[in-house]
Design goal:
The protein is an alpha/beta fold. It contains two helices and seven strands, in the order E-E-E-E-E-H-E-H-E.
Length: about 120
């Protein structure tokens, strides 16, 4: 019998630079987030078209920015293009464009005394 997938795609994303983006409507306004990272050369050992991504600072970003503000689906661009997208979002008047903060900078409401955020 032929290998019939009935509409599913099978494969693994090649190791490459990526940009993750989501635009979310808020009534008559929009907000977005942007992250840059890489698809890794790892077998995710699952079905469908998948990849394993490394996104620096993602766990903090998820906890302090994404939860409660954005849906869990996003778009992925194959390449680092967050700088261009950020400028485009600002050009069209988008006020809130969230990006990861470097480790020494706390997110609003983040407890800087947890998880070694401050060193002694």
């Amino acid at each position: 019998q032929a290998d019939i997938t009935r509409g599913t795609i099978e494969g693994q994303f090649a190791a490459s630079p990526i940009t993750v983006v989501q635009v979310h409507g808020l009534g008559d306004k929009m907000q977005a987030y942007l992250l840059e990272g890489h698809f890794l050369d790892l077998d995710p050992k699952t079905f469908g078209c998948t990849g394993t991504a490394y996104l620096p600072g993602f766990s903090r970003f998820y906890r302090h920015v994404l939860l409660g503000r954005f849906h869990h689906h996003a778009a992925v661009a194959f390449g680092h293009c967050a700088a261009v997208l950020y400028d485009a979002f600002k050009l069209v008047g988008m006020e809130k464009v969230f990006t990861p903060l470097p480790p020494p900078m706390p997110y609003p409401g983040e407890n800087v005394f947890r998880n070694g955020a401050l060193t002694h």
